[in-house]
Amino acid sequence: MRPRCRCATSRGCGRVRGLGRGLVWGLAAAVPLAFLGLFFALPVGSLVLRGFVADGGLDLGGFAEVFGRPRTWRIIGLTLAQATVGTAIAVLVGIPGAYLLYRCQFRGRAALRAFVIVPFVLPTVVVGVAFRSVLAPSGPLGFLDWDGTFAAVVAALVFFNYAVVVRTVGGFWAHLDPRAEQAARSLGAPPWRAFLTVTLPALTPAIASAASIVFLFCATAFGVVLVLGGTGYGTVETEIWVQTTQFLDLRAAAVLSVVQLVVVAVALGTAGRARARRERALQLGRPERVAHRRLALRGPERSAGDLLAVGVTAVVVVVLLALPLVTVLVRSFRTPTGWGLGNYVNLGTTGGSNALSVTVWEAGLNSLRIAVDATVMAVVVGGLVALVVSRRPRGRGTRRAVRALDAVFMLPLGVSAVTVGFGFLIALDRPLGLDVDLRTHPLLIPVAQAVVATPLVVRTVLPVLRAIDSRLHEAAAVLGASPGRVLRLVDWPIAARSLGLAVGLAFAVSLGEFGATSFLARPDRPTLPVVIFRLIGRPGAENLGMALAASVLLALVTASVMALTERLRAGAAGEF
Question: Which residues are in the ABC transmembrane type-1 domain (predicted)?
Fold first, then answer.
């Protein structure tokens, strides 16, 4: 027999259950908030204060000094120009790819989807090395004379962010009701007019969301710009690094960090509004089932739109995505004495003239250990955030708090990893008055990488949790299920579909993270991206060959992880 409730009334019993649920959800939100506060808000806030405070008082002289330099305005102009041009090109070439990979059925689509996502998770240093190889005078595109130019930086940014547009726009397009466009076609509108007047306006929320995220990534790019552009085509991100490591001007770096935070806030606000519009459009307009059409490339049903989509996507995949990667692979087998495995054999050494403190293999193992630790932290923290934010509370104040939590945890997605790493060095020497120096702790690099990876975990798991019918939770609660049992029986079986993709993204991003790690890694415990960058900066064909071989190995590990997670994700609806 079911035990009777000991409360005096059913209302009292319900109040007790409500307090229990509130305590559980409060703890679920408190853990990630504490993590974000200590390892993101504190370092970034301390860095920002450096720009406003001097000698214990408010002092805006640093802003006047930094903005009085022509170099600063040149850097800001280059940042905005590279981000704007890179975003525009990524959107233009990404829309045909989104149509082809998410609206059409053809053999090999799954493999092509998996390949397209690889550039996004590749370490930025590897991307820089790949484009330097393909654009060098001896490279396959050397005739363009783009090496070290603005065009090279933009091409690399498009390479890196193409998948963001394809997945964001394609995921929306896959659920877009085609009947409106079919009605326009039946009324006599040609295909191009039906697309421009019906489909394209319907895709606007997804395009705006993708464009804002791509602009954010382009504006905060670090490794790609540092390797390809150097000091001639730097951004605010690389300038922070230069002012800190070369000029030792911490005040100027802090002022530039404030400038970057303003750009990030605007971009994130735009992305948040666009994402909300996209989610509302899907909820209001998604049909029960959308049939994907087969490609029509020949015969009486041949479509000019399909031919255009295939042509643009083929050029992008072959020239922009595959060619740089293949070039790095081929050149990694070229040694000063001919073709062979010499560069890979040298990975067991410290390079020419002892360029490194450890061997490349030791740095690779260190990267793997750090990435595992960072992935565990990112999945735990990001999973808790996604779980809390996915709730649909009835109270207006609670709903606002949930939306605020979602927005707050997107900040690390846009704030530069360089800013986070720099902030760690400033703020974690006796944080909160504690007699401990966290800057020397071995977990500091995994924590920094987890801060960078957590937003991607949230954005991967959150759409899946939000898709769960709230009536399932209500029914379980009415039947007396505890919050833990509801999570285990209702949320977990569905959220597990996206967990593999979340783990893969977090691991790949952590494995290739360079911005924060470049500040925090010790010479005797470097990561693989840091080692690759050091080898590139050392003279000698031996060091360059080792950098290429290490880049190939890092790219293969990253690609393998993403291919595995794409196969295991079982239809997860993750997004960027």
Answer: 76-267, 364-565
